[in-house]
Design brief:
By secondary structure, this protein is mainly alpha-helical. It has helices at 2-13, 21-24, 27-41, 45-58, 64-76, 82-102, 107-117, 129-143, 147-160, 165-177, 181-194, 199-211, 215-228, 233-245, 287-308, 315-335, 344-350, 355-365, 372-381, 385-393, and strands at residues 251-252, 259-263, 270-274, 395-396. It is built from 20 helices and 4 strands.
Length: 397
């Protein structure tokens, strides 16, 4: 079991601490990236970007210099003027996508794209000024490899703001870097207790429990990481590693919405936009087009009806309305002998067995932060919902 567990780790369970050469580059490049992170923590953003660029030149095959620069730019977006923000957003997206071409398992690049695609994505707890100052100083020391000194600062931050889970998390990470697994486990556990919605804390706890050979604890932490933020792929990577241990690998669904609907608040009219690939398509000849058109029409009808009645339709309810109709149409097309669906996504979703399974699929495989109220209610009603859904369908986003 321990050998199998180690193999799963090699395959990518510890995506937060990946070891592939394509991700990290040579030793000098890694050093420059670490120096860049230290400069970023100190608020020296231009100098940090210069370090990431120097690292890229030293190891053009490595993704981490690109994803690090993308993450820095993404974090700066809220404070930039509109024009500058638009340019930085495009640069961040471009860098993240280039990083993923070099290393498909780059967690930082995946997180950048998640945050760019979901404008409501939360930025995390805001500590008080004293805690924030100590934490920032600790981050600089951490990225310089001064772990004992960093711990002093993280502890100062904890005392200044006991609700600041990142301070406990990062103290734990200093022990993790020193391979002191028991101390790391204790601090990561504390971070999850302070903030159960801290998906990163659950992931780091999963990594530590894996190294301690605690398979049950690993699965427990991975499930909680997914529950905290279902759209974060590194959390699913941990759960997928557990599935591989059981010989039941997960399949990535990767839903890309090929139809969108917008409502003009002045006229109350809905506008439907379909992907370019459907230009000139006919419903009778292209079942994928028919299903996506049904999805969009259902959402348009739901939006206009709600507007006429003065109701507010939640983003989750809108998504549920679209998929409920789309999958009903997909089933009817199959019964009528229409051309078969070509999209693996539509084929998979058509195989869902109940409205309850569709609800779970939207919350887990298509999550947006706007669905948070429905997610929390669903988790409360179905404490084992994630485990049950994954066991039934073997799917991940």
């Amino acid at each position: 079991m321990l050998r199998k567990l180690a193999f799963a780790l090699i395959l990518g369970i510890c995506a937060a601490r990946p070891a592939g050469a394509e991700l990290l580059g040579n030793a000098e490049s890694q050093k420059l990236v670490s120096e860049g992170h230290a400069l970023q923590a100190a608020g020296k953003y231009k100098e940090a970007l210069d370090k990431f660029e120097a690292a890229r030149k030293l190891s053009p095959e490595a993704s981490s210099p690109l994803s690090s620069a993308a993450y820095l730019l993404q974090m700066l977006l809220p404070g930039l003027p509109e024009d500058a923000a638009g340019k930085a957003r495009r640069q961040a997206e471009g860098l993240a996508r280039e990083a993923l071409k070099l290393a498909a398992n780059d967690p930082l690049a995946a997180e950048v794209l998640r945050m760019l695609e979901d404008p409501m994505a939360t930025s995390g707890y805001k500590p008080n000024a004293e805690a924030d100052k100590a934490y920032t100083e600790g981050e600089v020391l951490f990225h310089q490899g001064q772990y004992e000194a960093a711990r002093v600062k993280y502890r100062e931050a904890q005392l200044a703001d006991p609700k600041f889970s990142a301070a406990f998390l990062m103290e734990g990470d200093t022990y993790f870097m020193e391979k002191n697994w028991l101390a790391a486990e204790m601090l990561f556990n504390k971070a999850t207790q302070v903030d159960p919605q801290n998906a990163q804390a659950w992931r780091f706890l999963a990594d530590t429990l894996a190294r301690l050979g605690n398979r049950a604890g690993l699965e427990h932490a991975a499930l909680h990481a997914v529950a905290a933020q279902p759209s974060q792929m590194p959390s699913w990577d941990r759960l997928a590693a557990v599935a591989r241990l059981d010989g039941k690998p997960l399949t990535r669904l990767q839903v890309v919405r090929l139809a969108t609907v917008s409502l003009d608040p002045k006229t109350g009219k809905a506008t439907i936009s379909l992907a370019e690939q459907f230009k000139g398509a006919k419903v009778e000849d292209n079942s994928d087009y028919a299903v996506w058109l049904a999805y969009a029409l259902a959402q348009a009808n739901a939006l206009t009806s709600a507007a006429k009645e003065g109701r507010t339709l939640s983003p989750f309810a809108l998504e549920q309305a679209g998929w409920s109709t789309a999958l009903k149409v997909a089933g009817e097309l199959q019964e009528k002998g229409a051309p078969p669906l070509a999209s693996p996504v539509l084929l998979t979703l058509r195989g869902l067995k109940s409205p309850a399974d569709l609800e779970a699929a939207i919350l887990l495989l298509m999550y947006r932060e706007a669905y948070r109220p429905e997610l929390e209610a669903w988790k409360k009603a179905r404490p084992d919902g994630i485990r049950d859904f994954v066991a039934a369908y073997r799917l991940m986003p």
